[in-house]
Design brief:
The chain has 417 residues and is an alpha/beta fold. It is 41% helix and 16% strand. It folds into two domains: 139 residues, Aspartate Aminotransferase, domain 1 (Alpha-Beta Complex); 240 residues, Type I PLP-dependent aspartate aminotransferase-like (Major domain) (Aspartate Aminotransferase, domain 2), CATH 3.40.640.10. The protein has 15 helices and 14 strands.
Length: 417
């Protein structure tokens, strides 16, 4: 068989919709300044789909730092991978500041969070080791697991009984192989907003002698008294052996980091293939991240404003009877019952008639018959945005329950393919 033919015939769960709604339901083009209000197809919208938690994307101090760094260094500097010719004092400074912020001995920068997580997992384990991980693990964790040639056991999401059963299986194997156990969880689960039960997981650490890796992409900058993350929020920062954070969420930038003991960071620096064989993070992004981290540390009012909006949005939606699942973070999922077909109408109605832009999640990401609208509140949203959005969602829910979306109609959206 021709490989192109095979690829086209096996496009995947999401790719099956490639001929429908391109540029509208997926790959939409938001225009204008990154903000709570942006333009889509020439119309203004309240936007709830950007992970700009603290509003740093267009913060004047951040824009100034980014602009000055780009003018001074250009986007090409430094040239080469960190190990060869891409190492600078600015990279080291950011790593020191991140380690201090996370209360770890050392930190190491990663070009991208996704690639970084894959390489972290690959670098920590060999065929003698066993990985135990949460069933709701992010795709980057799953891809890292696929590189592991040893055993891996999955436990039911946030289920400590299931977790301990998998630890018992893992312990039997490593007692024979001489390997160790790596547990992987997320701090904040970015799709539905609930928290990894770090405290519960760590209650079993001494008994089963494992190390804990926490992917805190959505927790870094948003959770805890200082924004250090979910470990801080649950009072267990010391028990997290390896903390992973990304700049793509609260920092509104590009890149990521891993923080741990100095000896572990040194090993990772020499083993992470995604960093050894890739160009160093450009200096404007490094210098800009220093400014972003400074603002997270010195302007707690940004995080306080975020949580004012989070509480107003989530409380208001719950009072209207909406199901938000178990979210305990800014991530705000709104669950409704309906078909994939009805979901397209809901999005179309929200956008065309109410001017509300948010992400929609359907099967196979959620079970059949479930529609999930995902809202990301930020520090730059207003209480008026919240009020209007709750009213809009209430109207949509009434239309759904009245069967108004269950009709033979396909919204008129362009398909550039």
């Amino acid at each position: 068989m021709d490989i192109f033919e095979k690829v086209v015939n096996n496009v995947g769960a999401l790719g099956q919709y490639a001929d429908f709604g391109y540029g509208y339901y997926y790959f939409p083009k938001l225009e204008g300044e990154i903000s709570n209000h942006m333009t889509f197809r020439g119309k203004p919208y309240i936007v709830w789909s950007l992970n700009n938690y603290l509003g740093l994307a267009n913060h004047p101090e951040v824009r100034k730092a980014d602009t000055e760094a780009a003018g001074k260094f250009g986007l090409g500097a430094p040239m080469g991978a960190r190990m060869m010719s891409g190492h600078t004092v600015y990279h080291e400074e950011l790593e020191r500041e991140l380690a201090i912020f996370e209360k770890k001995e050392a930190a190491y920068l990663l070009n991208y969070g996704y690639q970084g997580m894959v390489s972290i997992i690959d670098s920590l384990v060999d065929r003698h080791d066993v990985i135990v991980y949460d069933s709701d693990a992010h795709a980057c964790i799953m891809d890292g697991l696929r590189l592991h040639i040893g055993k891996r056991f999955v436990y039911s999401h946030n289920d400590l009984n299931s977790f301990e059963k998998q630890l018992q299986r893992a312990q039997k194997i490593v007692s024979q192989t001489g390997g160790g156990i790596l547990v992987i969880t997320e701090g904040v689960y970015g799709m539905i907003g609930d928290l990894g039960n770090l405290k519960g997981i760590l209650s079993l650490k001494d008994k089963y002698n494992f190390r804990l890796l926490v992917d805190d992409a959505h927790g870094f900058g948003t959770m805890g008294a200082t924004g250090a993350g979910t470990g801080e929020a649950q009072g267990v920062m010391d028990g997290v052996d390896i903390h992973f954070g990304t700049f793509a969420k609260a920092m509104a930038g590009i890149g990521a980091f891993v923080a741990s003991e100095k000896k572990i960071i040194k090993v990772l620096a020499f083993k992470m293939r995604s960093q050894i064989y890739a160009k160093s993070l450009p200096l404007p992004m490094v210098v800009g991240s220093l400014k972003r981290l400074e603002l997270i540390r010195t302007q707690p009012e940004l995080r306080e404003k975020l949580w004012i909006i989070v509480r107003a949005l989530q409380t208001g939606l719950k009072e209207k009877g909406f199901d938000l699942g178990k979210t305990a973070s800014p991530v705000t999922p709104v669950f409704m019952k309906g078909s994939v077909f009805e979901a397209t109408h809901i999005v179309n109605d929200l956008r065309e008639n109410y001017g509300v832009f948010c992400s929609i999640v359907i099967y196979p990401v959620v079970p059949k018959g479930v529609i999930m609208l995902r809202l990301i509140p930020t520090a730059i949203h207003t209480l008026e945005d919240v009020r209007y959005t709750i009213e809009s969602f209430s109207a949509i829910q009434e239309n759904l329950q009245a069967g108004k979306y269950n009709k033979d109609f396909i919204p008129d959206v362009a398909d550039p393919f």
